[in-house]
Amino acid sequence: MKSSALKKVLISVAAAIGIAAVLAAVFFAGYLTRGAVGDTSYDWALKIIRDNYYKDIDTENADEVAVDALVDEYLDIYSAYYTPEEYAALQSSNAGNKSGFGVSVTYLKGTGLIISEAVGNSPAFAAGLRSGDVITSCEKGGKEYTFSSLNDFTSFADGIGDEQVVFNCASGKSCTLSRAQYNESYVFMATNDSAWTFTGADAMQITEIEGDKIEYLPEGTAYIALSQFYGNAPGQFRSAVQQFNSEGCTSLIIDLRNDGGGYVSVMQEIAACFENCRDGSTAMEARYKDGRSEIYSVNAAGTQPVISAETEVYVLANSNTASASEALIGCLVSYDVLSYGNIYISEYEQSYLDATGLTAESLKSGKTYGKGIMQSTFYNPLTGEALKLTTAQIYWPNGKTIHATGLSAEDGCHTVSSPMPLRGDGQELSSAVEMIFG
After folding, report:
1. Chain CA centroid to CA 265, Å
2. DSSP class of residue 256?
3. By mean pLDDT, which of 3-17, 60-74, 264-278, 370-384 is the weakest?
4. How far apart are CA 93 and CA 248, in angstroms?
5. Burial of 55 (0-12, 13-18, 19+ CB in 10 A)
């Protein structure tokens, strides 16, 4: 069975409620639809793999087995097989369509049950849950439940139906919510006197939530968190840029912590939100095993607001910052929107390492993930199944590739002490702001 240190961490310390809850999805997807159909699913998959996988592999002695077994045995951890049902669910989820509470939780020894993410526009976010909240108990049907392990909470979550549940937090707040269908907001923005997220059926209505302002941000500085490169993220980011300009901000902190990437097309559109990244200029280059290369260009959506070239831009990243996030960083670095010295990467504290029982090296502490390869998904029109393959290595516009290395202090980036891998307002963000602005 294939595994990685990061994958082990996610499995061991994260539990999700509903389809929407994902701590970090570490893949970079460029979706294609091609109809190379063989006599069987196995024939179809084997031909796709031999023709398109990013490196040659010896499948001459491969026995005819289930396609998922073929993928597990011969391909990397980023490749995957989807049944028709799984592929349909994946497409819907990646379009932003979610169902559930919209929270991910982590259990840390010595701390307890922690909200690692409250998805934007979800019932959890609307009820007031936020990343970093420590859950002391939950109430359901008039009964209170406490949790001394992740399994305790998982068992509780498995028994939740349509009823309301109360989450009680260590801070004293109590949040009441129930499962629902919603469209995800991938973008959150804050200044020192207000904050904004995206609400509504399509998550495109920019909505002020003053209670989430980040008071320690300097005047004229905005914070924008981007959780993934899917769904309506480009339109949301453009609206946030418009709000940034309306507020008269002159510096920007982009939070890409725990952003594992997503669609190439979304990265291309978000890159266009920066004045230096001209429409039509190279956003990234994909290089294939047969020597071909393909240029993906910055893709502006007509006339749109942009972050001016005079804006001082900073990026927050961690070991779960991967793929499209790293590609966006590369684009911003290549066009002088961002310098390496303005990148701040999480270095996990010993208390977190002790709580997980893992090492700094296995968690890639002080580095970004280092995923400079691209996946393409091939669809079988006769069966509805799909195959995601690693098809190319990615290079930044300046010719750099970060695959298997990531970004670190060796590149001139700064490291920030992190109590655990969380995005949003908290101890790590305040420490980074102090390092940036003094």
Report:
1. 15
2. -
3. 3-17
4. 35
5. exposed
CA distance 74 to 135: 42
pLDDT digits (tens, 9 = 90+) for 246-297: 999 999 999 999 999 999 999 999 999 999 999 999 999 999 999 999 999 9
Q: Give me the mean pLDDT over the 79-90 stretch.
A: 97
User: What is the pTM for the complete model shown?
Assistant: 0.91
**Tokens of residue 255, six digits:** 């939070």
Rounded CA-CA distance 27/10 in Å is 14
Strands (E), 227-381: 251-255, 282-287, 293-297, 312-317, 343-348, 373-379
Instruction: Tell me the residue type at 88.
Output: A
- Which tokens sit at 26? 């570490």
> Residue 295, exposed/middle/buried by CB under 10 A (0-12, 13-18, 19+)?
exposed
Q: Taking Cα atoms as reference points, which of 403, 404, 389, 392 lies closest to residue 287?
A: 392
Contact 198, 187 (CB under 8 A): yes
**Residues 131, 423 contacting (CB under 8 angstroms):** yes
Q: What is the pLDDT of residues 337-358, one digit of tens each?
A: 999 999 999 999 999 999 999 9
pLDDT > 90 fraction of the chain, expressed in percent and rounded: 87
Q: Which two tokens stand for residue 47?
A: 């031909």
Calpha distance 131→424 (Å, rounded):
7
